[in-house]
Amino acid sequence: MSAPERRQPPREARWETLEHSVQGVNKQLNQDWYVAEGSGSASDPLILAVADGHGSAVHARSHIGARCAVDLFAAQARTFAELARSEGPDGTHSLSWLMNYARNELPRQLAAAWQESVLAHWDRHPDTVNPAAEPPPKGRKLLLYGATLVGAVVTPQLFAAWQLGDGELTVIGADGAVALPLAPVEADLGDETESLCSRHAWQLVRVHWAPVVAPDRTPRLIVLSTDGLSKSFASDEGFAQFMAGLDQRLAKDGGPDDVREALPGWLAEAARYSGDDTTLVAARRPEPDAADHGPAPDEPRSDA
């Protein structure tokens, strides 16, 4: 009698990522920052984030604020993903516990850490133009570093995202539908936007919460972008069509490599129209067949 075939656990899909950023026309430096890391497994969560420094003299250090925002979000997202896979004092953290953490604790800790980080930067690098002047009050120091943030984390069980201020989270569903789940109810007026330097900033954070009920119903494309991209289109419909086209290009043979090659040119064209720094990070869920090839990300390898 032959030994029964050993059933292997389902393999976890490795998300493919692509990212790029271009400096706005006539800008002295790029005030955006971004990150795209992880495969989407339980031990290596997919983490995406873009931040947009406000620019202008009032926000002269916003490029530093944007980098702090992304770095601190990535740290908070890793902690959140670890909480999602670990057990608390009473057992595995429930979805309701994790949802409450995502909606309240993470934004509170992120906003507090950002303020602490940029104020510490000011203490290390105070104003050198007029060192004899009285240091500005705390609120004016924070304004110098003002930035927006869009961030997301994906594990085999959860997809959650957070947004403060402008920018876009675009989700292409398993059925190809394009959605912007964190779009504000009312669009910001002009260049005004909510910010990490706002009072009670954590309370302004919008949260998208989407537990994964079935792997094949997970979004097939997640895109985060700064508003330099959306402002380059004459209408919201044009922006949605661009995202649908991006999904279609990625689905073709050689699509990810072709898109990576073309992305800098697309973003440069967008920045030419919007005049703003333009950044995009995206993650594409591989087709189910692709996920069946090669060892699972968390499986140990043996050359024996």
* Mean residue pLDDT: 87
The H-level CATH homologous superfamily, spelled out, is: PPM-type phosphatase domain
CATH architecture: 4-Layer Sandwich
Give me the secondary-structure category: alpha+beta
Order of SSEs: EEEHEEHHEEEEEEHHHEH
> Looking at the structure, what is the overall shape?
globular
Radius of gyration, in Å, reads 21 Å
Our measurement of the CA-to-CA distance between the termini, rounded to an integer number of angstroms, reads: 26 Å
CATH topology: Phosphatase 2c, domain 1
Beta-strand portion reads 15-25%
What does this structure look like?
With 304 residues, the chain is α+β, with helices and mostly antiparallel strands. It has a single domain, classed as PPM-type phosphatase domain (Phosphatase 2c, domain 1, 4-Layer Sandwich). The chain is built from seven helices and twelve strands. The protein has helices at residues 62-85, 95-124, 138-144, 227-230, 236-251, 255-274, 288-291; strands at 16-22, 32-37, 46-53, 87-88, 91-92, 147-154, 158-164, 168-172, 178-179, 206-211, 221-225, 278-284. The strands form three sheets. A five-stranded antiparallel β-sheet has the order 1-12-11-8-9. Strands 2-3-6-7-10 form a five-stranded antiparallel β-sheet, covered by helices on one side. It has a two-stranded antiparallel sheet with strand order 4-5. A hairpin with an 8-residue loop joins strand 2 and strand 3 (46-53). The protein is globular, with a radius of gyration of 21 Å. The protein starts with 15 loop residues before the first strand and ends in a 13-residue tail after the last helix.
